[in-house]
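Q: I'm building a small set of examples for a reading group on sequence design. Run inverse folding on the following structure and report the sequence directly after it, with nothing in between.
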């Protein structure tokens, strides 16, 4: 599991969102908790900030969830016991409410294959187990897209624009700049 939050927020402080049991995400005002189905395999995460709502990715992903969080112009990504992956990443949209869309792929597959490793190899410290475990690293993947809904609407109004535009280099699938984060 990993959390996206404002750097000034302690993700473990009382009042945070509950763990997303049986769901992809859980949120409160300043945190988004993304639930990985296991916590022992590295996952792949792509984080995108958009000027306006990006087009939906369709069937390229297994799961999708939407929410909103308040950020003070920066975000951090915490991975629980594994530490902080990103601290204080500056957002072009500045301070305000951000809409967030989270996509996930291969969560069930990685969880099933990881459980099967224990059926084949009783010792998780064995070389065989560790070699097979490495083949699962990065298969579980996430795409997190965020944008300031109010900025997009006010910018379009100020410029006299209508209709939705989007980046042509949108990352609805795994891209070359994916980052693999250690398991939390």
């Amino acid at each position: 599991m990993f959390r996206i939050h404002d750097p000034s927020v302690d993700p473990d402080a009382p009042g945070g969102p509950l763990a997303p049991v049986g769901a992809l995400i859980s949120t409160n005002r300043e945190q988004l908790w993304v639930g990985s189905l296991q916590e022992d395999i590295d996952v792949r995460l792509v984080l995108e900030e958009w000027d306006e709502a990006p087009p939906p990715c369709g069937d390229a992903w297994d799961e999708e969830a939407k929410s909103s969080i308040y950020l003070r112009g920066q975000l951090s990504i915490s991975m629980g016991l594994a530490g902080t992956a990103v601290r204080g990443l500056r957002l072009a949209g500045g301070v305000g409410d951000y809409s967030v869309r989270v996509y996930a792929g291969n969560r069930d597959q990685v969880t099933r294959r990881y459980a099967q490793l224990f059926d084949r190899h009783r010792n998780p410290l064995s070389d065989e187990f560790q070699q097979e475990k490495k083949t699962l690293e990065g298969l579980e993947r996430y795409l997190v897209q965020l944008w300031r809904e109010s900025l997009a609407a006010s910018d379009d109004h100020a410029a006299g624009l209508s209709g939705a535009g989007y980046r042509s280099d949108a990352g609805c699938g795994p891209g070359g700049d994916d980052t693999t984060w250690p398991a939390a």
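Confidence is low (pLDDT under 50) at residues 156-170.
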